[in-house]
Specification:
- This protein is 54% helix and 16% strand.
- By secondary structure, the chain is α+β, with helices and mostly antiparallel strands.
- It has a 9-stranded mixed β-sheet with strand order 5-6-4-7-3-2-8-1-9.
- A hairpin with a 2-residue loop joins strand 5 and strand 6.
- Helix 1 packs antiparallel against helix 6, helix 1 crosses helix 9 and helix 9 runs antiparallel to helix 10.
- The model has no long low-confidence stretch (mean pLDDT 87).
Length: 360
């Protein structure tokens, strides 16, 4: 029972973390397609590029392509945290090029309300599935939008809504941008372009330049730090399981003193008896591992597809860390077998004659 409980916990936690981490890694690959990212000011600030800065970036010889973005906070419900409006260039006919869609996008045509694409958190919190309409406070007025699709966003737990920059400019007249995603021209490096732009921008004092690899590394480091406690739980589960094995085999060994003595009396060596105990420990632990594996995978399915979406409002892909689970199985079988042998050494230490004599 201790092995089943501890191994099931290990498998469930390891699978949940691996599924989450792989999903975040794939998501980062999708949302960071450019070779250099520039922000007008620190995250959370109201800094924006000037019109001259936008033109300098757009026309720089080291820039092959650039997509500008603006992030705006909008309150849809006073009782909830504001959502983030992401204003960027989006092709309504192929929105999957702009962000990772979660499911199929609904068709949109001219004459309908302007399209937006909402994150999974917005659907859960505000009830806006694809094909519905949503009202956003833009330019001091309530504007209706058509929800054309849902996308996966692991960066903003309270929700994000992406809309086309042309629609935002038409409704607000606002052309400022806060971020730029840059694809480099042939022969240019990110370091060289960063050096030239940093000295030319009006916002040179606050502008932040960062490569996608740095964003990815920092994001995954934060993820690993956040889930470090789960690894401690897995270690605790291993200790609990081995403690249970040691206690159970010690009790069995003490209760089977006469049996071991009779086996010795019939001619079995002490090593043969210890091998018998080791085989019993291996078989019993193997059975517990099989049951624990099935139980842990079942629990992980609940964590991945039920608990996580309800708690954080985003979905993930299921991924069982087969290599890690195989290592855990081998380590647990070896450790449990060794523990059983150590526990049985005490029972086989007494002489065979004295052990059998207790039955007289």
């Amino acid at each position: 029972a201790s092995i089943v409980a501890s191994f099931a916990l290990m498998v469930a936690m390891a699978t949940m973390v691996a599924s989450f981490r792989d999903s975040v890694s794939d998501w980062l690959d999708r949302v960071l397609p450019a070779e250099l990212y520039v922000r007008a000011g620190p995250a959370g600030s109201s800094s924006a590029f000037s019109d001259a800065d936008l033109e300098r970036i757009r026309t720089h010889p080291g820039v092959a392509r650039v997509d500008f973005t603006r992030f705006v906070k909008a309150s849809l419900d006073p009782a909830r945290a504001p959502v983030t409006l992401i204003v960027r260039n989006i092709d309504a006919a192929d929105p999957a090029r702009a962000f990772p869609l979660a499911g199929a996008s609904r068709p949109w045509r001219e004459g309908m309300d302007p399209p937006v694409w909402v994150s999974e958190a917005v659907v859960d919190l505000y009830g806006t599935p694809p094909g519905s309409t949503i009202t956003l406070p833009i330019a001091g007025r309530a504007q209706r939008f058509f929800v054309a699709g849902v996308w996966r966003d692991y960066a903003r737990q309270y929700g994000a809504i992406a809309l086309r920059d042309t629609d935002y400019e038409r409704l607000t007249g606002e052309r400022t941008r806060t971020d730029a995603a840059i694809w480099l021209a042939p022969g240019w490096s990110g370091a060289r372009l960063t050096e030239e732009l940093r000295g030319a921008l009006d916002s040179r004092a606050t502008a932040e330049f960062i490569a996608p690899g740095e964003i990815r590394e920092a994001s995954l480091k934060i993820f690993d730090r956040s889930f470090a406690v789960t690894y401690l739980l897995e270690i605790a589960a291993i200790v609990i399981g081995l403690t249970g094995v040691a206690a159970s085999f010690s009790a069995q060994a003490l209760a089977r003193l006469r049996e071991f003595g009779m086996l010795r009396h019939l001619g079995l060596t002490r090593g043969a008896v210890l091998r018998l105990i080791a085989l019993e420990g291996l078989m019993l632990t193997g059975l517990a591992v099989v049951v624990g594996l099935a139980t842990g995978l079942a629990i992980s399915l609940v964590l991945v597809f039920v608990v996580n979406p309800q708690s954080f409002h985003w979905t993930m892909d299921f991924h069982a860390p087969q290599g890690l689970i195989a290592v855990l199985v081998a380590a647990l079988l070896a450790a449990a077998t060794l523990t059983a042998v150590v526990a049985g050494r005490r029972a086989t230490a007494r002489s065979a004659v004295m052990a059998v004599r207790e039955d007289w």
